[in-house]
């Protein structure tokens, strides 16, 4: 495998690929029967085995999902907390080895894990809760000292999150909207109620001291394990990329309500991917507080994330620059989001006029409000106003030593003019998702040939079907020949007709060729989601749906064996072979291509790209 990594790294350099990331969320990491509690955990045996697997294959790093704490009834990491880490990602094996988790409790937790290859979120939630309760009950003096030091260092967010846990217990109710008003407003009291709120916080800290201490204890363990996993990744030359979610958890709205607009929520407008729009119900920072509390809150949040990772995926940058918003309280949220507007680009909407940056004469009223060209032009000063939050993020990233290659801006099918102006001034690109391309539109944003060097290219992500299933659907719909013809144009083989016929004849060949297309350029940054690498066919998440199937797929414990077998059958990504195809298509490093092909071994199907003389 070390030879494979060396050849892959040489090929990536020859092709001008600056970053190759493997996307995987914590919950999806494989388990090992010896220490698996039913959900992926980075520092578990399975998580560390997958880390070494990614290093062996030649990746630069892992792109992880959001790390926040999720609730028992909502497994979406994009609804998780902004500061507290998800304790479901704790690996129990290291806790037992350190003497933190009693042996009997460890064996009970491993024996109680749900069966099957998917995460059963609610069952894992309860299983981990029992294990961590037992661990806290046997906490040592050394652990208590570490806990108190951690709590002091992180008091600004940890006290709020711990008090939320205390109030859930106090009222036996997890939804703070059903609490008495004084507790709903514990951190943003009405004028004249500040002293009463302070007294109430002190009362709760005393009354629920044990529960608060346990919350601190669990967060200490979660943060320590993250640092240990990051150190292990660094030891094998892999970076860890975080995910700066745009969403705000229900808990964080309670904690930080003073910095959010009370009557507006963020969503996604109608688009080619979701024609009905998406009413996310995410809170919005109050622009009136950008120069004060809101910006301090935002800076504290991003500094924490940047301090914990080597790179960062910026989820839905539109939400930081010109969010699509709609009022709360409407009975039909889809009607509300479809009739929404951009917060800073709606001078003609009475309740948004005070926030407008674009002027009325800079709008193209022949277009729908969500169109990319709704705003036609902006001055430099206006762009700077749109960029207030984004510039703060980039400045913090630069201060940490991150380069443009370390920032992944999730811009999909829509790129409104203000968003484009802001990300361009920082040298950032957009996403090119190959499975979404339109064959009948030469200018389509998802076509690889239309990419820019700064862009990130992928065949899919956590919100799409794996390319292997997509290619099967293309084949079933009779679209194989059209896709194969496009690919023949991209690879320029000696015999385009034979190439197209070969690719079109089998959906696995079509999927393999699409994966190889990632490396043809001009995009210099490649991201591959774990299901596309491993040949899986089930989607990880279906946007706009609520289902136990979402966020529950897992990499099997015997993934190395299965991967080797599937590569041998042409049903998983053979990275050396894909790179060899790209090298031959680009007419560079012929000897390196031969070495990669030799490393890959016999092609399970006829070669889709004949060697050149």
Describe the structure.
With 613 residues, the protein is α/β, with parallel strands linked by helices. It is built from 25 helices and twelve strands. 45% of the residues lie in helices and 8% in strands. Helix 2 (45-57) links the parallel strand 1 (19-23) and strand 2 (61-63).
Core attributes:
eight-stranded parallel beta sheet, four-stranded antiparallel beta sheet, 12 strands, 45% helix, globular
Major β-sheet strand ordering:
9-6-3-2-1-12-11-10
The main pleated sheet reads as: 8 strands, parallel
Shape type: globular
Tell me roughly what share of residues is in helical segments: 40-55%
Given as residue ranges, the uncertain stretches (5+ residues, pLDDT < 50) are: none
The count of helical stretches stands at 25
């Amino acid at each position: 495998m070390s030879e494979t990594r060396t050849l892959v790294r040489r090929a990536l350099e020859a092709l001008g690929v600056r970053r190759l990331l493997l996307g995987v969320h914590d919950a999806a990491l494989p388990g090992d029967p010896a220490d698996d509690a039913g959900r992926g955990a980075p520092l578990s045996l399975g998580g560390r085995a997958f880390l070494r697997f990614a290093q062996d294959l030649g990746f630069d790093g892992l792109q992880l999902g959001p790390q926040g704490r999720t609730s028992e009834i909502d497994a979406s990491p994009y609804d998780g907390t902004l500061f507290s880490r998800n304790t479901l990602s704790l690996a129990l094996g290291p806790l037992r080895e350190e003497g933190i988790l009693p042996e009997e409790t460890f064996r009970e937790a491993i024996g109680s894990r749900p069966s099957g290859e998917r995460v059963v979120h609610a069952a894992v939630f309860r299983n981990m809760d029992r294990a961590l309760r037992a661990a806290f009950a046997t906490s040592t003096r050394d652990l208590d000292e570490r806990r108190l030091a951690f709590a002091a260092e992180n008091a600004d967010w940890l006290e709020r999150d711990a008090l939320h846990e205390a109030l859930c217990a106090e009222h036996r109710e997890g939804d703070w909207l059903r609490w008495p008003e004084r507790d709903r407003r514990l951190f943003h009291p009405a004028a004249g109620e500040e002293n009463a709120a302070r007294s109430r916080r002190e009362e709760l800290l005393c009354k629920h001291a044990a529960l608060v201490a346990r919350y601190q204890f669990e967060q200490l363990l979660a943060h320590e394990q993250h640092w240990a996993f990051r150190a292990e990744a660094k030891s094998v030359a892999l970076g860890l990329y975080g995910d700066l979610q745009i969403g705000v958890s229900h808990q964080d709205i309670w904690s930080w309500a003073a910095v959010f607009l009370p009557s507006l929520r963020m969503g996604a407008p109608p688009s080619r991917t979701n024609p009905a729009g998406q009413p996310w119900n995410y809170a919005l920072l109050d622009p009136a507080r950008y120069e004060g509390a809101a910006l301090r809150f935002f800076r504290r949040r991003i500094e924490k994330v940047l301090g914990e990772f080597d790179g960062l995926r910026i989820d839905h940058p539109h939400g930081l620059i010109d969010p699509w918003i709609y009022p709360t309280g409407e009975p039909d949220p889809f009607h509300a989001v479809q009739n929404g507007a951009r917060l800073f680009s709606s001078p003609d909407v009475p309740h948004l006029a005070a926030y407008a940056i674009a002027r009325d004469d800079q709008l193209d009223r022949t277009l729908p409000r969500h169109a990319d060209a709704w705003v036609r032009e902006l001055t430099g000063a206006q762009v700077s106003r749109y960029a207030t939050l984004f510039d703060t993020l980039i400045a913090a990233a630069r201060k940490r030593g991150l380069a443009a290659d370390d920032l992944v801006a999730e811009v999909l099918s829509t790129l409104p003019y203000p968003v484009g102006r802001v990300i361009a001034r920082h040298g950032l690109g957009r996403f090119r998702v190959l499975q979404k391309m339109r064959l009948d539109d030469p200018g389509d944003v998802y076509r690889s040939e239309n990419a820019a060097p700064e862009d990130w290219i992928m065949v899919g992500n956590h919100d799409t079907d794996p390319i292997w299933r997509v290619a099967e659907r293309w084949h079933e719909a009779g679209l194989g020949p059209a896709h194969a013809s496009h690919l023949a144009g991209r690879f320029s083989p000696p015999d385009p007709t034979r190439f197209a016929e070969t690719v079109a004849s089998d959906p696995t060949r079509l999927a393999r060729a699409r994966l190889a297309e990632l490396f043809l350029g001009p995009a210099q940054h490649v991201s591959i989601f774990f299901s596309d690498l491993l040949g899986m066919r089930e989607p990880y998440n279906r946007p706009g749906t609520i289902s136990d199937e979402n966020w529950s797929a897992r990499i099997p414990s015997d993934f190395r064996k299965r991967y080797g077998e599937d590569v041998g059958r042409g049903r998983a990504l053979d990275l050396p072979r894909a790179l060899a195809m790209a090298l031959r298509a680009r007419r560079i490093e012929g000897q390196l291509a031969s070495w990669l092909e030799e490393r890959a071994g016999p092609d399970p199907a006829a070669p889709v790209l004949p060697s050149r003389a």
